[in-house]
Specification:
Strand content: 5-15%
Largest sheet: 6 strands, mixed
Number of helices: 8
CATH topology of the largest domain: Serine Threonine Protein Phosphatase 5, Tetratricopeptide repeat
CATH class of the largest domain: Mainly Alpha
Shape: elongated
Number of domains: 2
Helix content: 40-55%
Order of helices and strands: EEEHEEEEEHHHHHHH
Number of strands: 8
Distance between the termini: 17 Å
CATH architecture of the largest domain: Alpha Horseshoe
Length: about 290
Amino acid sequence: MPELTALDPSGLPAPVLPPPHFDVFVFGEHEAHLDGERVGVADGQSVHEAILDLLQQHARDCRGPVRATVFDRPHARTVCIEVAPDGSSRIPGPDEEGSWSAAPSAEGESYGSHRGPAPVSHRDPAPAAVAERVQHIREAVDGGDTEHAGLLAAALRERLTGDHGAGHPQALEARAMEAYVAHLAGDHPLATSLAIGVARIRCGLGDARAADDVLRATAAWERLLDERAVSAHGRELLHLWTHVAGKRRLDHAHAEAMRLVRQHFIAPDTGTRGHGGRGTAVPRDTCAL
Protein backbone atom coordinates (compact mmCIF):
# COMPACT_ATOMS: atom_id res chain seq x y z
CA MET A 1 0.00 0.00 0.00
CA PRO A 2 1.92 3.06 -1.21
CA GLU A 3 -0.11 5.69 0.65
CA LEU A 4 -2.32 5.80 3.72
CA THR A 5 -5.11 7.22 1.55
CA ALA A 6 -5.60 3.93 -0.30
CA LEU A 7 -8.40 1.45 0.27
CA ASP A 8 -7.36 -1.67 2.08
CA PRO A 9 -8.48 -4.85 0.26
CA SER A 10 -10.51 -5.90 3.31
CA GLY A 11 -12.72 -2.89 2.81
CA LEU A 12 -11.98 -0.46 5.64
CA PRO A 13 -11.10 2.89 4.03
CA ALA A 14 -8.02 4.71 5.17
CA PRO A 15 -8.28 8.30 6.32
CA VAL A 16 -7.15 11.02 3.99
CA LEU A 17 -4.34 12.88 5.63
CA PRO A 18 -3.45 16.47 4.82
CA PRO A 19 -0.41 16.79 2.54
CA PRO A 20 2.91 17.74 4.15
CA HIS A 21 2.97 21.50 4.73
CA PHE A 22 5.79 24.03 4.57
CA ASP A 23 6.11 27.70 5.44
CA VAL A 24 7.90 29.87 2.87
CA PHE A 25 8.95 33.47 3.56
CA VAL A 26 9.91 35.66 0.60
CA PHE A 27 12.12 38.59 1.62
CA GLY A 28 13.05 39.96 -1.81
CA GLU A 29 13.53 39.16 -5.49
CA HIS A 30 16.37 36.73 -4.74
CA GLU A 31 15.84 35.68 -1.12
CA ALA A 32 13.40 33.24 0.44
CA HIS A 33 13.41 30.72 3.27
CA LEU A 34 11.52 27.42 3.44
CA ASP A 35 10.97 26.21 7.01
CA GLY A 36 13.91 28.34 8.11
CA GLU A 37 16.34 27.19 5.37
CA ARG A 38 17.45 29.53 2.61
CA VAL A 39 16.09 28.74 -0.87
CA GLY A 40 18.81 28.67 -3.52
CA VAL A 41 18.00 30.94 -6.45
CA ALA A 42 20.03 30.28 -9.62
CA ASP A 43 21.17 32.99 -12.03
CA GLY A 44 18.31 33.98 -14.30
CA GLN A 45 15.77 32.21 -12.09
CA SER A 46 13.00 34.02 -10.23
CA VAL A 47 12.53 33.42 -6.53
CA HIS A 48 9.09 31.96 -7.26
CA GLU A 49 10.56 29.44 -9.71
CA ALA A 50 13.15 28.43 -7.14
CA ILE A 51 10.44 27.90 -4.53
CA LEU A 52 8.44 25.72 -6.94
CA ASP A 53 11.51 23.64 -7.79
CA LEU A 54 12.26 23.03 -4.12
CA LEU A 55 8.64 22.12 -3.34
CA GLN A 56 8.64 19.72 -6.29
CA GLN A 57 11.70 18.01 -4.83
CA HIS A 58 9.93 17.63 -1.48
CA ALA A 59 6.87 16.22 -3.29
CA ARG A 60 9.07 13.64 -5.01
CA ASP A 61 10.65 12.69 -1.69
CA CYS A 62 7.19 12.32 -0.11
CA ARG A 63 5.76 10.51 -3.16
CA GLY A 64 2.77 12.81 -3.18
CA PRO A 65 1.71 16.45 -3.30
CA VAL A 66 2.94 18.94 -0.73
CA ARG A 67 1.46 22.28 0.30
CA ALA A 68 3.05 25.52 1.32
CA THR A 69 1.95 28.85 2.70
CA VAL A 70 4.03 31.52 0.98
CA PHE A 71 4.38 34.80 2.84
CA ASP A 72 5.53 37.37 0.28
CA ARG A 73 6.65 40.24 2.49
CA PRO A 74 7.69 42.74 -0.22
CA HIS A 75 4.19 42.57 -1.75
CA ALA A 76 2.36 42.04 1.57
CA ARG A 77 0.65 38.94 0.15
CA THR A 78 0.06 35.40 1.32
CA VAL A 79 -0.76 32.51 -0.99
CA CYS A 80 -1.25 28.80 -0.36
CA ILE A 81 -0.18 26.40 -3.08
CA GLU A 82 0.00 22.66 -3.71
CA VAL A 83 2.80 21.16 -5.80
CA ALA A 84 2.78 17.63 -7.23
CA PRO A 85 5.81 15.39 -7.86
CA ASP A 86 5.56 16.13 -11.61
CA GLY A 87 5.97 19.86 -10.92
CA SER A 88 2.39 20.89 -11.58
CA SER A 89 0.96 23.34 -9.07
CA ARG A 90 -2.43 24.62 -8.07
CA ILE A 91 -4.20 26.64 -5.41
CA PRO A 92 -6.46 24.44 -3.23
CA GLY A 93 -10.11 25.44 -3.24
CA PRO A 94 -11.76 26.75 -0.06
CA ASP A 95 -13.95 23.62 0.23
CA GLU A 96 -11.05 21.20 0.33
CA GLU A 97 -9.85 19.35 3.42
CA GLY A 98 -7.08 21.31 5.09
CA SER A 99 -7.68 24.29 2.82
CA TRP A 100 -7.95 27.99 3.62
CA SER A 101 -10.53 30.76 3.39
CA ALA A 102 -10.53 32.67 0.11
CA ALA A 103 -9.27 36.23 -0.02
CA PRO A 104 -8.52 38.50 -3.03
CA SER A 105 -4.98 38.17 -4.38
CA ALA A 106 -3.24 37.91 -7.71
CA GLU A 107 -0.11 36.33 -6.32
CA GLY A 108 -1.34 32.83 -7.12
CA GLU A 109 -0.59 33.40 -10.80
CA SER A 110 3.12 33.48 -9.94
CA TYR A 111 2.82 29.78 -9.11
CA GLY A 112 1.13 28.61 -12.29
CA SER A 113 -2.47 28.56 -11.04
CA HIS A 114 -5.47 30.08 -12.79
CA ARG A 115 -8.17 28.85 -10.47
CA GLY A 116 -9.13 32.30 -9.21
CA PRO A 117 -8.42 34.20 -5.99
CA ALA A 118 -5.67 32.91 -3.79
CA PRO A 119 -6.70 31.87 -0.27
CA VAL A 120 -5.11 33.26 2.85
CA SER A 121 -4.46 31.18 5.95
CA HIS A 122 -6.57 31.98 9.00
CA ARG A 123 -5.16 29.22 11.20
CA ASP A 124 -1.72 28.13 12.21
CA PRO A 125 -0.14 26.10 9.38
CA ALA A 126 0.89 22.52 10.06
CA PRO A 127 4.42 22.45 11.47
CA ALA A 128 7.06 20.60 9.49
CA ALA A 129 7.48 18.20 12.43
CA VAL A 130 3.93 16.92 11.92
CA ALA A 131 4.54 16.25 8.22
CA GLU A 132 7.72 14.41 9.12
CA ARG A 133 5.92 12.23 11.67
CA VAL A 134 3.21 11.39 9.13
CA GLN A 135 5.89 10.35 6.66
CA HIS A 136 7.50 8.07 9.27
CA ILE A 137 4.12 6.41 9.86
CA ARG A 138 3.68 5.86 6.13
CA GLU A 139 7.13 4.33 5.89
CA ALA A 140 6.41 1.97 8.78
CA VAL A 141 3.14 0.87 7.16
CA ASP A 142 4.84 0.39 3.79
CA GLY A 143 7.46 -1.74 5.52
CA GLY A 144 4.81 -3.90 7.18
CA ASP A 145 5.73 -2.78 10.71
CA THR A 146 2.19 -1.94 11.85
CA GLU A 147 3.16 -2.19 15.52
CA HIS A 148 5.70 0.60 15.17
CA ALA A 149 3.32 2.57 12.95
CA GLY A 150 0.64 2.27 15.62
CA LEU A 151 2.96 3.61 18.31
CA LEU A 152 3.93 6.54 16.09
CA ALA A 153 0.30 7.29 15.22
CA ALA A 154 -0.74 7.18 18.87
CA ALA A 155 2.08 9.56 19.82
CA LEU A 156 1.09 11.97 17.05
CA ARG A 157 -2.56 11.87 18.06
CA GLU A 158 -1.71 12.51 21.71
CA ARG A 159 0.56 15.43 20.83
CA LEU A 160 -1.93 17.12 18.49
CA THR A 161 -4.81 16.56 20.88
CA GLY A 162 -2.81 17.98 23.77
CA ASP A 163 -1.67 21.00 21.77
CA HIS A 164 -4.87 21.84 19.90
CA GLY A 165 -7.74 19.83 21.41
CA ALA A 166 -9.48 16.66 20.25
CA GLY A 167 -11.68 18.55 17.78
CA HIS A 168 -8.80 20.13 15.84
CA PRO A 169 -8.80 18.91 12.19
CA GLN A 170 -5.28 17.53 12.38
CA ALA A 171 -5.95 15.82 15.71
CA LEU A 172 -9.01 14.17 14.17
CA GLU A 173 -7.06 13.01 11.14
CA ALA A 174 -4.35 11.61 13.40
CA ARG A 175 -6.99 9.69 15.36
CA ALA A 176 -8.47 8.35 12.12
CA MET A 177 -4.99 7.33 10.96
CA GLU A 178 -4.36 5.52 14.24
CA ALA A 179 -7.65 3.68 13.79
CA TYR A 180 -6.65 2.59 10.31
CA VAL A 181 -3.24 1.37 11.44
CA ALA A 182 -4.94 -0.59 14.24
CA HIS A 183 -7.18 -2.18 11.63
CA LEU A 184 -4.15 -3.19 9.54
CA ALA A 185 -2.60 -4.69 12.66
CA GLY A 186 -5.75 -6.72 13.32
CA ASP A 187 -6.56 -4.84 16.53
CA HIS A 188 -10.23 -4.40 15.68
CA PRO A 189 -11.36 -3.37 19.20
CA LEU A 190 -8.92 -0.46 19.16
CA ALA A 191 -9.77 0.41 15.56
CA THR A 192 -13.48 0.48 16.42
CA SER A 193 -13.01 2.59 19.55
CA LEU A 194 -10.86 5.14 17.73
CA ALA A 195 -13.12 5.29 14.67
CA ILE A 196 -16.18 5.83 16.86
CA GLY A 197 -14.26 8.58 18.66
CA VAL A 198 -13.70 10.40 15.36
CA ALA A 199 -17.37 9.99 14.41
CA ARG A 200 -18.55 11.18 17.83
CA ILE A 201 -16.47 14.35 17.68
CA ARG A 202 -17.48 15.20 14.13
CA CYS A 203 -21.14 14.63 14.97
CA GLY A 204 -20.77 16.98 17.91
CA LEU A 205 -19.17 19.59 15.66
CA GLY A 206 -21.96 19.29 13.11
CA ASP A 207 -19.39 18.34 10.46
CA ALA A 208 -20.91 17.31 7.13
CA ARG A 209 -18.42 14.41 6.96
CA ALA A 210 -19.81 12.82 10.12
CA ALA A 211 -21.92 10.31 8.17
CA ASP A 212 -18.84 8.93 6.41
CA ASP A 213 -17.04 8.68 9.74
CA VAL A 214 -19.92 6.73 11.28
CA LEU A 215 -19.89 4.49 8.21
CA ARG A 216 -16.19 3.85 8.70
CA ALA A 217 -16.73 3.12 12.38
CA THR A 218 -19.51 0.68 11.47
CA ALA A 219 -17.14 -1.14 9.10
CA ALA A 220 -14.65 -1.53 11.95
CA TRP A 221 -17.40 -2.62 14.36
CA GLU A 222 -18.38 -5.46 12.02
CA ARG A 223 -15.07 -7.16 12.74
CA LEU A 224 -15.54 -7.36 16.50
CA LEU A 225 -15.92 -10.81 18.04
CA ASP A 226 -16.52 -10.06 21.72
CA GLU A 227 -20.29 -9.72 22.16
CA ARG A 228 -20.00 -7.28 25.06
CA ALA A 229 -17.93 -4.94 22.90
CA VAL A 230 -20.27 -5.51 19.97
CA SER A 231 -23.29 -4.50 22.04
CA ALA A 232 -21.63 -1.53 23.76
CA HIS A 233 -20.20 -0.05 20.56
CA GLY A 234 -23.29 -1.01 18.61
CA ARG A 235 -25.51 1.07 20.89
CA GLU A 236 -23.29 4.09 20.45
CA LEU A 237 -23.22 3.59 16.69
CA LEU A 238 -27.01 3.42 16.66
CA HIS A 239 -27.12 6.67 18.62
CA LEU A 240 -24.70 8.30 16.16
CA TRP A 241 -26.65 7.06 13.14
CA THR A 242 -29.86 8.40 14.66
CA HIS A 243 -28.15 11.75 15.18
CA VAL A 244 -26.91 11.86 11.59
CA ALA A 245 -30.27 10.80 10.18
CA GLY A 246 -31.90 13.63 12.10
CA LYS A 247 -29.62 16.14 10.39
CA ARG A 248 -29.71 14.96 6.80
CA ARG A 249 -31.23 12.41 4.45
CA LEU A 250 -29.08 9.28 4.44
CA ASP A 251 -27.92 7.92 1.11
CA HIS A 252 -28.22 4.21 0.38
CA ALA A 253 -24.86 3.15 1.84
CA HIS A 254 -25.43 5.08 5.06
CA ALA A 255 -29.02 3.85 5.42
CA GLU A 256 -27.88 0.24 4.95
CA ALA A 257 -25.19 0.63 7.60
CA MET A 258 -27.71 2.09 10.05
CA ARG A 259 -30.09 -0.79 9.32
CA LEU A 260 -27.27 -3.27 9.95
CA VAL A 261 -26.52 -1.80 13.39
CA ARG A 262 -30.21 -1.60 14.34
CA GLN A 263 -30.79 -5.18 13.17
CA HIS A 264 -28.20 -6.41 15.63
CA PHE A 265 -30.50 -5.50 18.53
CA ILE A 266 -33.68 -6.96 16.99
CA ALA A 267 -34.10 -10.73 17.08
CA PRO A 268 -35.66 -12.06 13.84
CA ASP A 269 -39.46 -12.44 13.86
CA THR A 270 -39.78 -11.59 17.55
CA GLY A 271 -39.24 -7.86 17.83
CA THR A 272 -37.01 -8.44 20.88
CA ARG A 273 -33.40 -7.53 21.34
CA GLY A 274 -30.89 -10.10 20.21
CA HIS A 275 -27.33 -10.56 18.98
CA GLY A 276 -27.57 -12.21 15.60
CA GLY A 277 -28.10 -9.33 13.27
CA ARG A 278 -24.67 -8.41 11.96
CA GLY A 279 -24.03 -9.13 8.32
CA THR A 280 -22.24 -7.57 5.38
CA ALA A 281 -24.42 -4.55 4.64
CA VAL A 282 -21.60 -2.05 5.01
CA PRO A 283 -20.15 -1.58 1.49
CA ARG A 284 -16.63 -2.88 0.98
CA ASP A 285 -15.82 -0.03 -1.38
CA THR A 286 -16.76 2.90 0.83
CA CYS A 287 -14.72 5.95 -0.05
CA ALA A 288 -12.25 7.56 2.28
CA LEU A 289 -12.76 11.13 3.31
